[in-house]
Design brief:
The protein is an alpha/beta fold. It has one domain: Alpha/Beta hydrolase fold, catalytic domain (Rossmann fold, 3-Layer(aba) Sandwich). It is built from ten helices and eight strands. The chain has an eight-stranded mixed β-sheet with strand order 1-2-4-3-5-6-7-8, with helices on both faces. The longest helix is centred in the middle third of the chain and has 24 residues. The protein is globular, with a radius of gyration of 17 Å. It holds the Pfam family Abhydrolase_1.
């Protein structure tokens, strides 16, 4: 386990690191998740192994610190991740980022372009979503006030999320989970989609084949973003179809191979 101080108050981001060649690959989890649990098998898959790999937990999640005074906006997550990658010497990294992590990765590439050479977005959030009571994800959490969520709303979210998601969601600080969800649902200005369209690095968006076509796919492709459906999976592409995910990701990272 490695770590880096990423806030003036001394809060630390932590990551599991696998040795290998450069450029580094950085794996970033989604809301209420943790990168080692979601990406360890992918990072050592024969199609992806051999590269220096950082399985990073964002602030408030997994093994990283859970500061109560942190805002947990997508921009703040991206800046904290940038600080960690700078300490790790992982400039020009290839980012493989799931769900909320994909939104953070887009913002990171926009705000700290020297740190990111390529993006593989795994069913990432691109657009704001309105609060939706009774939903399990960011829109459901955002339907509470922070006081309501901390006072007991979190237990309702736990019951809706189910045992698998809760197994990692329970590791997140409740304040961190709430604020991350609210800011993910609200999105950024410009939106994550608009930022993604403006980037010039190689970009791939993986989505479950059952959810295709991706809204706005034609505009993404016109801007150079490869949109790749993966069969036999839901939102957790890397867990539902490890072989399909590894094959699609390997192609995205080395399209000439």
């Amino acid at each position: 386990m490695r770590d880096a101080v990423v806030t003036p108050e001394g809060d630390r981001i932590r990551w599991v690191e696998l040795p290998g060649g450069t450029p580094a690959r950085v794996y970033v989890h989604g809301l209420g998740a943790t990168s080692p649990a979601y990406f360890a098998a992918s990072a050592v898959h024969p199609l992806l192994a051999g590269r220096r790999s950082l399985l990073v937990d964002l602030l408030g999640h997994g093994h990283s610190d859970r500061p109560e005074g942190f805002g947990y906006t997508l921009e703040e997550h991206a800046d904290a991740l940038a600080a960690a990658l700078t300490v790790a010497g992982a400039q020009g990294a290839e980012l493989i980022a799931h769900s909320m992590g994909g939104a953070v990765a887009i913002v990171l590439a926009d705000r700290h372009p020297h740190l990111v050479s390529r993006l593989v977005l795994v069913d990432a959030n691109l657009d704001p979503v309105p609060p939706r009571p009774a939903a399990a994800g960011s829109s459901g959490i955002a339907a509470y006030t922070e006081e309501e969520f901390l006072a007991g709303g979190w237990a309702e979210v736990r019951d809706r999320a189910g045992a698998h998601w809760w197994s990692t969601m329970r590791l997140a600080g409740r304040t961190a989970l709430y604020r991350s969800a609210v800011h993910l649902a609200a999105g950024t200005t410009p939106t994550m989609r608009e930022l993604l369209l403006q980037l010039t690095i190689p970009r791939t968006f993986l989505l479950p084949e059952a959810d295709a076509p991706l809204p706005g796919a034609d505009a993404l492709r016109a801007a150079g973003v490869a949109v790749v459906p993966v069969p036999d999976c839901g939102h957790n592409v890397m867990l539902d179809n490890p072989e399909g995910f590894a094959r699609a990701t390997a192609t995205a990272l080395d399209p000439t191979d």
